[in-house]
Known about the structure:
Oligomer: single chain
Number of strands: 13
Mean pLDDT: 93
Amino acid sequence: MPNRPEQGLDASLEQGLRSVPVGVTVRVSVPATSANLGPGFDSMGLALDLRDDVEVTTVDEGFSAVVQGEGAGVVPTDASHLVIATLRGYLLERGWEVPGLELVATNRIPHGRGLGSSAAAHASAILLADALLPQDERASEADLLNAASHLEGHPDNVAPALAGGLTVSWEETGRYRSSAMRPHPAVVPVVAIPARPLSTETARGLLPAQVPHHVAAANAGRVGLLVHALTQVPSLLLAGTRDWLHQDQREPAMPESVGLVRELRRQGLAAVVSGAGPTVMVLADGMDQADGARTAMQAGLEGSAQPWRVSILPVDSAGAKVETHRSGQPISG
């Protein structure tokens, strides 16, 4: 999971905070996600069957992290680890502190590829922190979504990471909200993940501040069609994934990805840039088309200057999972 510097949490915490007891272990498992799905910019997301697993144990003192998989040897392993820093900050806001933490992260979601690694980290931190609290202090699902989305800056990845499946999210009166749907069982995501990452900030920096009214209207129509295609009629996925708001505009930052999307769509495949990129995803209608999409992706990437991983990632319908163990008690979900 990606990381950011701790924001002043090493300073002495204010008196009057309640302390999380030592000897509590919490485990969370959070899926990868693909946001936008073409026209659903900053609002639609889909959970994918690729998971980051994080375990924390409260200890008497000190903050440490062991990171396996993606980010190992790169991300911090002290109190500045993103999950530790975010977890502590959330507890502080709730009036709690934790004396120390040992964290073990098994990261499978690639960083900086448009597959929701940042959202998985923020969701993990909020879920871990909430599970450390007494049962009667825990937040509602709506509050957890809102807290993680505010940390992330938007809910399009956080919502499917928490709920699984397909989600449509929005902001209203300062709160993030989401509605979850079950995708049609024939929908099969296929991804092509490049070796080189791309920062979300770079990709967002290429977007215009305004778009013409007719462009916004056309895009809104395709969002409605996309929901119908994903949940009811997958044969409409090619038309439903047409976007005018963000993918072409980001081509300077990922010309190979956008070029591959265009070529796959010319072949009749519902190809999109996953999130802010540079991963390319095809939403296939059935396994036969998914196998064909995988072959087409591999053919389209022959001669690329960088390695790509092409694989089928089924939709994850379970969403985030949480298990808690308190000294002398069994693990509970």
